[in-house]
Amino acid sequence: MSKKTVMEVFEETAAKRSSAPALKVKRGGSWQTTTWSQYRDAVRLAARGFMKLGLEAGQGVSIIGFNCPEWVIADVAAIYAGGFPAGIYTTNSPEQCQYIADHSDSAIAVVENAEQLAKFKAVRDQLPKLKAIVMIYGSDADSDVHSWDDLMKLGAEVPESDLEARIAAQKPEDCCTLIYTSGTTGNPKAVMISHDNITWTSNAAYTALGGNDNDQFISYLPLSHIAEQVVSLHGPMLVGACTAFAESIELLGDNLREIRPTIFLAVPRVWEKIQAKMVQAGSQNPWLKKKIAAWARKQGLAGGYADQRGQGRPMFFGLAEKLVFSKVRERLGLDRCRIQITSAAPISKSTLEFFLSLGIPIMEVYGMSECTGPATISMPDKYRTGSVGWVLPGGEVKIADDGEICMRGRHVCMGYYKNPEVTAETIDPDGWLHSGDIGEIDSDGFLKITDRKKDLIITAGGENIAPQLIEGMLKSIDVVSQVVVVGDRKKHLSALVTIDETKLEALSAAVGEKVESLAAAAGSQAVHQHVLGQVNEVNKQLARVQTIKKIKILPVDLTIEGGELTPTMKVKRKIVNKKYATEIEAFYS
């Protein structure tokens, strides 16, 4: 693909797909559609509005709010006007908003509603560069706060020629957006993504996925994350497909059935929650239905692995498809979905096999913000359960001498904004991006992640232990939600464990006593013994130095709000270690 700016791609698609649906959102109880020509016009008008409010080329536009048409319009409008959109997670605190808005030199903040506006008002005196705030929903009496309608009216006061000058000044090699890494330690770093980074990567990924203008997506994961931007913003922009916005995370199940996407991206935690609901619903089925489902799942698992080996499926796979799999996909809203994707964090093999056994193979994609999302991809005709796929066509992946995964290509970012020192540490002189992940490539070219380089636990005995590998196995225990393995510089490994709140009924049955809450589970000796017994079964599959000797069941789950998880559901180990220092120390006292 020749080098193009975001504007060139968008203008070409809007011209070709003028009256086709681009965006859908449910308001007033019905789905409303924005066509590609309407989308383009809104972007250009919003860009002129930002210019009227004082946005200069090279300044940031902070955006915070749940996924909606206005979010992506603001994002692309900022790029058109020569600015850098900087997405902020909706769960971020006022202090975190202040850091990103200040660091990105944001002249404008776009906020969803009064709740998000309050965060900026709380730190307004610490943002001297901020000239205006735009509210997507609602209005405010503050003279510096403008409604979305105000923005569009202001845009009409700026000549199109002024916007064209901003567009013409930009080149494919220029930075067009800032992606703030959610960060498991310290303040987030701002990844500089160029026009060529995002347009090339979207093209490479969508070509590999067979993306086309008939595709339908549902957007619900944070748009401040690069994976969601590639899948539901820049990818559809390239092929002229349609993106629908979920009403909320809580209503995702309903919206899936209404939209019936053709490609669906979910982080592991979403897949795990879908799995938990399905298991719970299945437990209520009559005996015969359970027997049929169990038989079908055996066919599904055997068929899924046969597909991966290029072998024929079991004789009765077609019958299982008709009786069970097709009905399951329809209930989930995945009956039109040709590719189900997981990314952003490790997923357990048990979850992958659960869906595989139901004729829903989940494709693992691996990458990071610094390579504009995907470095490897998986496809229904080329995947391996437990591997994160093969190298994105046009990119390169290698394993360094110390086992670190490195990537090179047009998807590798420009570096970190205002941080040349860390840029030099991350991208070497030969253009290789050092991921910080440890992995291996098998003889068929499939990449497997074995651990985080920085997360390696070194025991008192000098053994290097990969905690994520063990955690993935422990999370396959039916009642377990999260696991954090600890034991750095200690004589053995231990684990902090949280219980899946949806499994309390099953847990009660297993231990023979009523367990009504997570706190009750944490205080129950019977629950402790039950989970420890399951842990010991997992230990049998591990080397002696990898085994878990002690566990502590926590009274609450790990959450984003609690600070233990990033918005993409990665564990913040330093935070967990600090928060539960007393419990960890008790393992070794």
What does this structure look like?
This protein is α/β, with parallel strands linked by helices and 589 residues long. The protein has three domains: 6-257, 3-Layer(aba) Sandwich (Rossmann fold), CATH 3.40.50.980; 262-364, no CATH class; 457-587, 2-Layer Sandwich (GMP Synthetase, Chain A, domain 3). The chain has 21 helices and 27 strands. The chain has a five-stranded parallel β-sheet with strand order 4-3-5-6-7, with helices on both faces. The protein has a four-stranded mixed β-sheet with strand order 2-1-11-10, with helices on both faces. Helix 14 links the parallel strand 13 (339-342) and strand 14. Helix 8 crosses helix 9 (226-239). The longest helix is centred in the middle third of the chain and has 23 residues, at 287-309. It is globular and about 70 Å long. The mean pLDDT is 94.
Protein topology:
Layout: H1 6-16, E1 21-27, E2 30-35, H2 36-52, E3 60-64, H3 69-80, E4 84-88, H4 94-103, E5 106-111, H5 114-122, E6 132-135, E7 145-147, H6 148-155, H7 160-168, E8 175-180, E9 190-194, H8 195-209, E10 216-219, H9 226-239, E11 242-245, H10 252-259, E12 263-266, H11 268-282, H12 287-309, H13 317-332, E13 339-342, H14 349-356, E14 362-364, E15 366-368, E16 373-377, E17 390-391, E18 396-399, E19 404-408, E20 415-416, H15 420-426, E21 433-441, E22 447-452, E23 457-458, E24 464-465, H16 467-474, E25 480-486, E26 493-499, H17 504-511, H18 518-523, H19 525-539, E27 548-553, H20 573-579, H21 581-587
Parallel strand pairs: 1-11, 3-4, 3-5, 5-6, 6-7, 10-11, 12-13, 13-14, 26-27
Antiparallel strand pairs: 1-2, 8-9, 9-20, 15-16, 16-17, 18-19, 19-21, 21-22, 23-24, 25-26
Helix pairs in contact: 1-2, 1-9, 2-3, 2-6, 4-5, 8-9, 12-13
